[in-house]
Design brief:
Distance between the termini: 42 Å
Structural class: alpha+beta
Helix content: 40-55%
Number of helices: 6
Number of strands: 6
Number of domains: 1
Largest sheet: 4 strands, mixed
Strand content: 15-25%
Order of helices and strands: EHEHEEHHHHEE
Length: about 140
């Protein structure tokens, strides 16, 4: 029986900021990141080479590196990011033997077609909630 250490914070998330759905989802997560666990890095500029994988791979799927340098890609990265900001990761459901491969395939299909999704729909899909701040206190 092997034991894998839990990922350590902060997480560095490499995402495509030129993608409406990626930007909406990362904006949603960052707005909820009250503990400062997420560091967002836009890997979309041409020539970007500061990530844990070649730019082409970073643009094909979300990548997340934890503080210990471990890299997670796709659905596992999203699950960890959601958990870091207090959102449900869908862990139990996504771990079911028949569902896990479907989630990976659905993510790959979405990632390949993400530029076709209009910004208004991306914001809705991401459940984006803009924080409203008054007198130094913010509410999601």
């Amino acid at each position: 029986m092997s034991h894998t250490a839990a990922p350590s914070y902060p997480f560095t998330i490499f995402f495509d900021a030129s993608c409406a759905i990626c930007s909406a989802e990362m904006g949603n997560m960052k707005a909820r990141d009250t503990a400062g666990r997420l560091q967002l890095v836009d890997c979309s500029p041409p020539g970007f080479d500061a990530g844990p994988a070649p730019r082409e791979a970073l643009m094909a799927a979300i990548h997340m590196a934890d503080a210990d340098g471990r890299v997670f890609v796709g659905v596992p990265a999203i699950r960890l990011c959601r958990t870091a900001v207090g959102l449900s990761s869908g862990g139990f459901l996504l771990d079911l033997p028949l569902v896990a491969p479907l989630a990976d395939r659905a993510y790959a299909l979405l990632a390949r077609n993400r530029y076709r999704i209009p910004r208004w729909l991306a914001n809705r899909l991401a459940g984006r909630i803009a924080p409203s701040c008054h007198d130094g206190s913010c509410r999601l």
